[in-house]
Amino acid sequence: GAVVSQHPSWVICKSGTSVKIECRSLDFQATTMFWYRQFPKQSLMLMATSNEGSKATYEQGVEKDKFLINHASLTLSTLTVTSAHPEDSSFYICSAAGSGNQGRHEQYFGPGTRLTVT
Amino acid sequence: ELKVEQNPLFLSMQEGKNYTIYCNYSTTSDRLYWYRQDPGKSLESLFVLLSNGAVKQEGRLMASLDTKARLSTLHITAAVHDLSATYFCAVTSGGYQKVTFGTGTKLQVIP
């Protein structure tokens, strides 16, 4: 089946620093990747959609200069949280959707990255 | 704007009992998903429902879709403790690009 990995699985950083999270599709080509954030005991909120080789589309209310998304290849997307603050502490989950028959009707979710900003 | 609501938000039930989780959505959808999330973990895909009247079953879980009523149900039969988790429904519209998640239902099965 389609597998999506994320790295790191958890990270602690100091306020004001930047953190990069990687999302990889391991056994299929992901033409589209999605980034979600989830606060404790809440649902998932879509942050942005990225298509390989083009700029990400951000949801309303998500600061594109703070959450930098790069989708440089068909297997890798990165989310960089710049100048992180404690309120950015959250569970970040990526998902990937492929082309053709694989992943066509479904997004495959990564294991998530827990970010804690101190 | 597509809105997805689930009820109940929290469900505590005894082992062996049956119960149903409801998922309502506000606009026409392409497809509906059910996911399971364990604490501290990501999402596990349970079902994808593509058309009106679709019914899928896996073990003690059965999902159905009524697109006319914009309603999906997740029925739990003879619950066991291992089913304790948070369940999300999610809906796409305008192609599979954008998925909107429901509020989630936290299920606690008591031995």
Describe this structure as you would to a colleague:
With 118 residues, chain A is mainly β. Chain A has no helices and 11 strands. Chain A has strands spanning 4-7, 10-13, 19-25, 30-38, 44-51, 57-58, 67-73, 76-81, 90-98, 108-109, 113-117. In chain A, strands 2, 4, 5, 6, 9, 10 and 11 form a 7-stranded mixed beta sheet that branches. Chain A has a 4-stranded antiparallel beta sheet with strand order 1-3-8-7, with no helix packed on it. The N and C termini of chain A lie far apart (37 Å). With 111 residues, chain B is mainly β. Chain B contains no helices and 11 strands. Chain B has strands spanning 4-7, 10-14, 19-25, 31-37, 43-49, 55-58, 61-66, 71-76, 85-92, 99-101, 105-110. In chain B, the strands form 2 sheets. In chain B, strands 2, 4, 5, 9, 10 and 11 form a 6-stranded mixed beta sheet that branches. A 5-stranded antiparallel beta sheet of chain B has the order 1-3-8-7-6, with no helix packed on it. The termini of chain B are far apart. The mean pLDDT of chain B is 93. Classes of the chains: A mainly beta (118), B mainly beta (111).
Radius of gyration of chain A: 14 Å
Q: What's the order of the H and E elements of chain B?
A: EEEEEEEEEEE
Please state roughly what percent of the residues of chain A sit in beta strands, choosing from under 5%, 5-15%, 15-25%, 25-35%, 35-45% or over 45%. over 45%
Mean pLDDT of chain B: 93
Structural class of chain B, by secondary structure, is: mainly beta
Structure keywords:
heterodimer; A: 118 residues; mainly beta; 53% strand; globular; B: 111 residues; six-stranded mixed beta sheet; 11 strands
Sequence-ordered SSE layout with sheet pairings:
The complex is a heterodimer of chains A (118) and B (111).
Chain A: E1 4-7, E2 10-13, E3 19-25, E4 30-38, E5 44-51, E6 57-58, E7 67-73, E8 76-81, E9 90-98, E10 108-109, E11 113-117
Parallel strand pairs in A: 2-11
Antiparallel strand pairs in A: 1-3, 3-8, 4-5, 4-9, 5-6, 7-8, 9-10, 9-11
Chain B: E1 4-7, E2 10-14, E3 19-25, E4 31-37, E5 43-49, E6 55-58, E7 61-66, E8 71-76, E9 85-92, E10 99-101, E11 105-110
Parallel strand pairs in B: 2-11
Antiparallel strand pairs in B: 1-3, 3-8, 4-5, 4-9, 6-7, 7-8, 9-10, 9-11
